[in-house]
Amino acid sequence: MQPGAPWPKFSNNVSNTGVGVGSGSNGLVRWSIPFSVYAPVVAADGTIYTTDQTGVRALNPDGTTKWYGGSAFPVSGTGLTIGYDGTLYVPDTSISGNCNLVAMNPSGTTLWSFAEPGATFTSPTIGADNSVYVGSTDPNSKTFLGTMYGVSSGGALNGVSRREGR
Known about the structure:
Neuraminidase, 4-stranded antiparallel sheet
C-alpha cells in the first residue's frame, strides 16, 4: 500500500483494524457530498478516492471534485485500494455481469483491466511484491464457493486458488 497514505484501503491497513492515524475527528462536519459512496480511501497527498454506482470519484481534501470517471458500475459495498506507487485498484462489475479489476493512475486514466466472467470481486489488497489480490464468489453457487486471484502490478494473472466443496 502507498507509504504515507492515511487510509489506503478498505479497513485502512494490512491488519484491517479500521483504525486511522492521528488524533481523530472533533465531531464537526467539514463538508459533505450529495451522493452515495463506498469505502473511501485517502492517498498520501490527501486526495480522497471513492466509488459509487456510476464510477470512481477523486475529491480534494476540502471535498471539491478533482475528477470523476473511470469504471462503469463498481461493486456495491466494496472499495478500491491504493498501491505502493499510487495506482488505484478498482473492482468493477459491468452491466453484463462480467467483473474487471481495473488499475487507474491517480489522474483517473485506466492503465489495465483484468477480466473474469461471472465473478464478483472483493476489495483488492496489495502483497509485499506489489501483486494485487482479489477474492471472488460465483454468483450462481448456492454454497458461496470462491476463488482468489493474484494479479501482477502490470495486470497479468499470477495465480488462482479455488475452494472446491465444503
